[in-house]
Design goal:
Low-confidence stretches: 281-288
CATH class of the largest domain: Alpha Beta
Helix content: 40-55%
Radius of gyration: 35 Å
CATH topology of the largest domain: Rossmann fold
Number of helices: 36
Number of domains: 4
Largest sheet: 7 strands, mixed
Strand content: 5-15%
Mean pLDDT: 85
Length: 820
């Protein structure tokens, strides 16, 4: 029922109560007033209302919902409930309500016992005119009758505050647990504005200095653009490639979960393709799995499945240049990027054909339209032509014969797909050169393009005599196999897990240092060596830090979720960040000091990105404390979800996933609504703190993140790192307080007064106030989670505050000593 209809029904109820006598017995009160209120005003369907249900020796008056969500106990209209005098608020203490009259106490106890016996969350007592609603069955350690209640004191108050009543007691509201959130928040129906809204230029970019900008440009070239330099490609893969699949010793996830990276891609009932992980040979790290090489003669595309950034492209290029170079030493390698390169093509088939032709010509000096090559490709057709109707012209009229033969061959070459197919077949057989085509980044395009790419790869592999690799993301593969192009083909696919991030960084940074110091020449840097020495010093500092402490690699490994591309980007972003003290680092290194980069300094560039303050849309960090409802307890919902997924071993399947229904059951039992949980799950998934089965993410429209809930969820290393290292850390709290609605007005005003001050002492004090505010909310919430404790997080992260305090104490001691 829509709101306007419900409101009109409330007006009708008021009119009815005024016309009829107030001397109704209980049955008449229920028939005239309570039925009308529940069905017409609150939108409960008649079929969802059960009356006179046995409960031991007694009977419940109303049980609402399927399954039961709320129990109402009805009294006769003349049996008034005593409400605190002169108080027009809707929230009251149940202890206070009980003390006011025996009638109140008996009715509340009666309906609360019904809820306890039936396992029903919400309880209410009513005389048709007044309603007292509360949480009748709790799992947060508070006795139900020691909590708070929502009160409608009269018909007039019902009409006056009907929007609030409807938003808390209607069918939809009860199903979404809005009443619990309202009571928990002390009666707030809207969230406070975030402190960031008081900043006039938010979000404000932090400008790089000229030095930082120069450093950023050079680091981009040396650490990322180098992958596109063909002159050093072979050297790069020989020195930098790390085999896939090695389990990280720095990841906060269990080894079991890491080894099941691509598990649960398909539902148990699906007819699944064979998925086999690619692993290096233990005896010879550079040796590729023999089965991958064997499949190059199978006339089927070799499907490589991997998450973004795990190294699918690197795997192929390393295969050609290093791992299987003996098998492919005579190969002509064609790399086709369906990402940026193909954007100007409407037809992917045309792009693949044009790009293959172009690379054969430019990279391998094979001209498909050179006269001699064409005669070679169509040798059999030339022989047939000679035996045909115009064959006698070869002797009687040689010029005419040549012209006719050329026209015949020209017609053949006009069919570009067939000409390319014949050409590749000719190259493979006549020249004994294997053509290897890698179709990459199809997953950056629409699903229809992805499926078309697979059909093309199947056609090339089966009919062209070429070896074809096609790379896809797990979810792309899942979608296509379920309902798209891959469904028609029996598929064997190889999964690529990321290599160890610590080894990747050690090799990549070492290679970059070699280039920056001039030991390894690179074409892009021949024209200028400006800034190279500074970059070399910076790289030395990072390598020194990685070798001296596990803290930095633990940060990078877990925040990147094992994504190689992201891990390298984190380093590049740090080197050129406006939020990094790059000049100090380089100065210390020039002076001969071995500078160890503070982890919090590196983390700052991850949390803030390129902004002055934390900006959630552009930060890799997630605000654990943000809320979607007017419920201060929600500050801890994200942490509870992550901790449950990490620690609830009895709820996990073999691959570490927890079913969504079990997750909802556990967390709704702590007093959070289904809506709150769904919103948080969507945000955590898209921010990669948790992972959904079948690898889905959620689209966003004007209402927020949308999409069907997946079957199950699993925690990621990024999520665990947020809880174990960041949640109560000084730097993290100092950033998140800008983006968190603070429900305590006094605390909010105190922090807001210093929100624009960047002095360390001021930041230290306001972060401490924010931490204390969260602690107070945690204690008053009485959340009894077996998997998470905010106060435990505070204890674990206390060292970050102690370090800052030590700095102040040391500074003060030095000042006093100077004064003497």
């Amino acid at each position: 029922m829509d709101y306007e209809t419900c409101y009109q029904a409330a007006l009708d109820l008021l009119e009815l109560s005024q016309k009829e006598s107030c001397d109704r017995n209980e049955a008449q009160t229920r028939f005239d007033l309570v039925d009308h209120f529940l069905e017409r005003c609150m939108g409960w369907d008649h079929l969802e209302i059960k009356v006179e249900q046995p409960n031991g020796p007694d009977y419940t008056d109303y049980e609402l919902g399927t399954p039961r969500k709320m129990i109402y106990e009805a009294k006769r209209q003349s049996k008034h409930f005593e409400i605190p005098a002169g108080n027009h608020k809707h929230i009251h203490s149940l202890k206070q309500i009980k003390k006011l009259s025996k009638t109140n106490e008996e009715a509340l106890k009666q309906v609360q016992e019904y809820c306890a016996n039936r396992g029903v969350t919400y309880a209410a007592i009513t005389n048709g005119e007044q309603v007292i609603a509360f949480v009748g069955s709790r799992q947060d350690g508070i006795e139900p009758l020691d909590g708070k209640c929502f009160v409608i004191s009269s018909f007039n108050q019902l009409i006056k505050d009907f929007p609030l009543v409807h938003s808390l007691l209607s069918k939809v509201a009860i199903e979404e647990n809005r009443l619990m959130a309202y009571l928990n928040s002390g009666g707030s129906i809207s969230t406070p504005t975030k402190l960031s809204s008081s900043l006039p230029t938010y979000p404000d970019l932090k400008e790089r200095s000229d030095f930082q900008a120069s450093l950023k440009i050079i680091s981009d070239i040396v650490l990322e653009d180098v992958l596109g330099d063909k002159s050093i490609e072979k050297t790069f893969y020989e020195q930098c490639y790390c085999e896939a699949g090695a389990l990280s010793q720095y990841s906060l996830l269990s080894k079991k979960i890491l080894s099941y990276r691509y598990a649960a891609l398909f539902s148990p009932g699906d007819s699944n393709p064979t998925l086999q992980p690619v692993k290096g040979d233990r005896k010879k790290v550079s040796k590729l799995s023999d089965e991958v090489v064997a499949l190059t003669t199978s006339k089927r595309p070799i499907v490589l499945i991997g998450d973004v950034g795990v190294g699918k492209t690197s795997f192929i290029k390393n295969l050609i240049n290093v791992s299987a170079k003996e098998e492919f030493e005579n190969a002509l390698f064609i790399y086709i990027d369906l990402g940026r390169q193909a954007n100007f093509y409407d037809n992917i088939r045309d792009f693949v054909i044009d790009e293959t032709e172009a690379q054969l010509h430019d990279k391998h000096e094979v001209d498909l339209y050179e006269s001699g090559f064409i005669f070679g490709v169509y040798h059999s057709e030339v022989a047939r032509f000679r035996r045909g109707l115009d064959g006698d012209l070869e002797e009687t009229d040689p010029p005419a014969y040549k012209k006719a033969l050329k026209e015949h061959l020209r017609e053949k070459t006009k069919n570009k797909p067939e000409h390319l197919r014949r050409s590749i077949d000719h190259i493979s057989k006549a020249r004994h050169k294997q053509v290897v085509i890698a179709i990459d980044n199809a997953d950056q395009r629409s699903l229809s393009v992805q499926q078309e790419a697979f059909v093309i790869s199947e056609e090339i592999a089966s009919g062209w005599g070429a070896v074809v690799f096609i790379t896809v993301r797990p979810h792309t593969f899942y979608q296509s196999k379920r309902s798209g192009a891959l469904a028609a083909y029996p598929t064997k696919a190889f999964t690529i897990s990321p290599p160890r991030i610590d080894l990747v960084l050690e090799k990549r940074l070492g290679f970059a240092l070699s280039m920056a110091s001039g030991k390894t020449p690179i074409e892009q840097l021949r024209s200028s060596r400006l800034g190279m020495s500074s970059l070399a010093h910076f790289l030395e500092a990072i390598l020194f830090t990685l070798n001296q402490t596990d803290e930095l690699i633990t940060l990078i490994d877990n925040i990147s979720n094992g994504n190689v591309r992201t891990a390298v980007e984190l380093v590049v972003n740090y080197i050129g960040s406006a939020n990094a003290d790059s000049e100090r680092i380089i100065k210390e290194m020039i002076l001969g000091e071995k500078y160890k980069i503070p982890v919090h300094d590196f983390a700052k560039t991850i949390i803030y990105g390129e902004y002055v303050t934390y900006y959630p849309e552009r930060s890799m960090a997630f605000n654990l404390f943000d809320v979607s409802a007017a419920d201060s307890r929600e500050h801890f919902l994200a942490s509870i979800i992550i901790s449950l997924l990490d620690n609830a071993d009895t709820l996990k399947n073999a691959e570490g996933f927890v079913r969504a229904d079990a997750l909802f059951d556990k967390i709704q039992g702590l007093g959070f609504s289904k809506s709150q949980i769904e919103i948080k799950l969507r945000k955590l998934t898209n921010k990669k703190l948790i992972k959904a089965s079948e690898r889905i993410t959620f689209e966003e429209d004007i209402t927020g993140l949308i999409g069907q809930m997946p079957d199950s969820f699993r925690v990621t290393a990024t999520g665990v790192y947020h809880i174990q290292y960041w949640s109560a850390d000084f730097a993290y709290l100092d950033a998140m307080l800008f983006d968190t609605p603070i429900f305590d007005r006094e605390v909010r005003q105190e922090i807001a007064a210093a929100i624009r001050n960047t002095d360390l002492s001021v930041r230290f004090n306001r972060a401490g106030k924010f931490r204390d505010y969260l602690t107070a909310i945690w204690r008053s919430s009485n959340i009894k989670s077996e998997y998470y404790s905010w106060e435990e997080s505070v204890s674990i992260c206390s060292g970050s505050f102690e370090k800052v305090q030590y700095f102040f104490d040391k500074k003060e001691t030095a000042r006093k000593g100077f004064g003497k």
